[in-house]
Each structure stands twice: as C-alpha cells, then as structure tokens.
C-alpha cells in the first residue's frame, strides 16, 4: 500500500492556495487602467497573490500533530 506524500489537510490548503492565486491574477486582469496602474492592479491583486503563495508554502511545510 503506497502512502501519499502529504495528508488530507495539506492538499486542502494547496487547493486553497491555487484558488487564491487564480483569483489574484483574475483581479489583476480586470483592472481597467492603462498598464494595470489602478487600485486592482497595483494594490489588491498583489496582496491576494502573495496570500496564495504564502498559503502554498504553509501547505507544504504543515505537519499535523499525531493523535494519541
């Protein structure tokens, strides 16, 4: 029986991180200002994308506590 590299919670966090990344890049593409110099392109979407990357790093490094 092969065991997966990560636990269920790790994969859930990874999916959440990918969703955050997709939402961040979508919001960045929605900016109507030229060259993306509006609020969406310069402020909001980079924060969302950064949150997605932080979530991905946390998902990889997360180790659940073992139950007794």
Q: Which term fits the overall shape?
A: elongated
Number of helices, where a helix is a run of at least 4 consecutive DSSP H or I residues:
2
Instruction: Kindly give the count of domains.
Output: 1
Order of helices and strands: HH
| Arithmetic mean pLDDT | 91
Number of E-type strands: 0
Q: What share of residues is helical?
A: 55-70%
Task: Tell me what portion of residues adopts beta-strand conformation.
Answer: under 5%
Rg over C-alpha atoms, rounded to the nearest angstrom? 16 Å
Between the first and last Cα atoms, what is the distance in angstroms? Answer: 23 Å
Biggest sheet character: none
**Unreliable parts:** none
The chain-level structural class is mainly alpha
Describe this structure in words.
- The chain has 2 helices and no strands.
- It is mainly alpha-helical.
- It has one domain.
- The mean pLDDT is 91.
Structure described in brief:
By secondary structure, this protein is mainly alpha-helical. It has one domain.
Key features?
68 residues, mainly alpha, 66% helix
Strand and helix layout:
Elements: H1 8-29, H2 39-61
């Amino acid at each position: 029986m092969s065991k997966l590299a990560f636990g269920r919670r790790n994969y859930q966090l990874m999916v959440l991180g990918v969703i955050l990344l997709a939402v961040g890049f979508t919001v960045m593409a929605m900016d109507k200002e030229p060259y993306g110099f509006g609020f969406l392109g310069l402020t909001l979407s980079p924060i969302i994308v950064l949150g997605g990357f932080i979530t991905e790093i946390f998902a990889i490094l997360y180790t659940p506590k073992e139950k007794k």
